[in-house]
Amino acid sequence: MRAVQVNGPADRPTLVEAHVPRPAPGENDVLIQVQAAGVTSAELQWYPTWHNKDGSTRSGAIPGHEFSGVVAEVGGSVTGVSVGDEVYGMNDWFIDGATADFCVAAASSVAKKPSKLTDAEAAAVPISALTAWQGLVDRAKLKRGERVLVHGGAGAVGVFVIQLARELGAEIISTASARNLEFVTQLGARRAIDYNKDAFEETVRDVDVVFDCVGGETLARSWGVLKPGGRMVTIASDAEGTLDQRVKDAFFILEPNQRQLVEIAERLDKGRLRSFVDTEVPLSEAPAAYSGKLVRKHGYGKTVVVISANGTH
Fold it and tell me: What CATH code is carried by the domain that includes residue 51?
């Protein structure tokens, strides 16, 4: 099958096109004929991209761990999922991803594809929406009427953080670039701050939750805007190896969750949530998508690799 693989060295990773054997599903897995796969460029620097679960060195990983596609084969113990089902979901970081004609995923990590979305729109959802859900609901336990500051509100995760926070009845403040201020306001932010022009910490005070998608200096400057008892959530990759206990406590990596995927799909089909695709590219342009060489069309949402010719049906 066609695929793109990560090529070393690890500090300067690139992607190369390749033909590799089609994977086979395990007993509790499904084989997906991929229609579209979401791009998370930071994945090329993540530990699982370069290591197996036992800590040994890994090479030639296929990136892209969220997808929309059709079930092509099911493992012997799989129930509730059938060949021919249109599904969306994600797979384990330590196995090959979906930037290929086929990928394997645990049956418990996929759900019925939102019927009103194209495959490209559906592929932009799983990692981003699950991250937003688990950060706001499971970790921060955001309540109606609370104030939340979202850093990177126009990004792949940020668009879902704002929409879910709006659904939960929160008052939302979001940082964004100048060209996306109106966009995040339309999503549900009561106030939008241009991060290139204004220092948010000079005017924002006493927020209940900070949801940080940026990290670095932005995260460091955010502690002071929390009210006593406020909650910090960060997904910034530079927080993963920190020695700062506060950051350790705030950082998390999402877990696959079929029930949440089902609930997210219901909201997408009812129009209560929207998926935003910045750019769609064919498999041949996946290396450019991961390297950042693509010119983004909108500056918000996610880049998606369309694998199949009918990936935008």
Answer: 3.90.180.10
